[in-house]
TrEMBL record:
Signal peptide: none annotated. Keywords: Cell membrane, Membrane, Transmembrane, Transmembrane helix, Transport. It comes from the Bacteria. Belongs to the 4-toluene sulfonate uptake permease (TSUP) (TC 2.A.102) family. The keyword ATP-binding does not apply. It comes from Achromobacter kerstersii. This is Probable membrane transporter protein.
């Protein structure tokens, strides 16, 4: 069973991470991992995070299922699944530090561009679903950092923030399910620490989602995009920091 110090670090971090997830539809791993990894080994943390992501995204998907854009799911899901397979392979064979640094720099620049530029309507054709889906799936498998691409695509296809969150929650649930199956087949969930930590962090996840949903209902499209860009900025910065840590090792 995790000690008190571990819980004092992980519980508030996961509340914040899942509040952000409920608001913008992604960000849990990139918000929680840099902090929680200081007290929980990544081989333990990642399987725990995958289960919680699956539960949170499935719960949000059920709650918002009527608002999900099914046509967009059908557009992006095949490419996303292919990307998850490719990303899992690349995770094994490609050095991560340089790729993570490049990804972090790109996300930071994109977020700053969104924050500093004037809001204007932008649209993206459905054919771009293959690019966003494949790239998002690949980056999700490699870094846990691909859902922001789904957000970018969906915000250029949909007007309603609730529809964006609902659609994205479904896509994240599928990705999390694939990761959980992979971890289960490799025996990760036979580790008692993984089981204990998952059970103890379930209430933190639920509270975070509840708080995030309360806040999200008060967001119009402009505020939603502003929060999205701020999360992307934090995401990119986190990736750059993680890349520096990997490079140091």
């Amino acid at each position: 069973m995790p000690d008190l110090y571990v819980l004092l670090v992980t519980v508030p971090t996961f509340i914040v991470a899942y509040a952000v997830f409920a608001m913008v539809g992604f960000g849990t791993t990139l918000i929680s991992a840099p902090i929680v990894a200081q007290v929980v080994p990544l081989p333990t943390l990642i399987p725990v995070q995958s289960v919680l992501d699956l539960i949170a995204s499935s719960g949000m998907g059920l709650k918002l299922r009527r608002q999900a854009a099914r046509s967009e799911v059908l557009h992006i899901l095949p490419a996303m699944t292919l990307g998850l397979v490719v990303g899992t392979y690349l995770l094994i064979v490609v050095p991560l530090a340089a790729l993570m640094a490049l990804l972090g720099a790109f996300v930071v620049l994109y977020a700053l561009r969104g924050i500093l530029s004037r809001p204007r309507a932008r649209t993206t054709g459905p054919r771009w679903a293959w690019w966003y889906g494949f790239a998002g799936g690949t980056l999700s498998a490699m870094f846990g950092a691909g859902a922001w691409l789904y957000a970018v695509y969906l915000t250029r296809r949909l007007e309603d923030p609730a529809a964006i969150r609902a659609t994205q929650s479904f896509l994240i649930a599928v990705g999390a399910l694939i990761r959980v199956v992979l971890f289960a087949t490799t025996g990760k969930y036979s580790n008692p620490q993984v089981i204990w930590l998952t059970a103890l962090l379930l209430p933190a996840m639920a509270l975070g989602v509840f708080l995030g949903n309360r806040i999200a209902h008060k967001l119009n499209r402009t505020r939603f995009l502003r929060v999205l860009y701020l999360v992307l900025l934090a995401t990119g910065t986190s990736l750059l920091m993680r890349a520096t840590t990997l490079d140091a090792h």
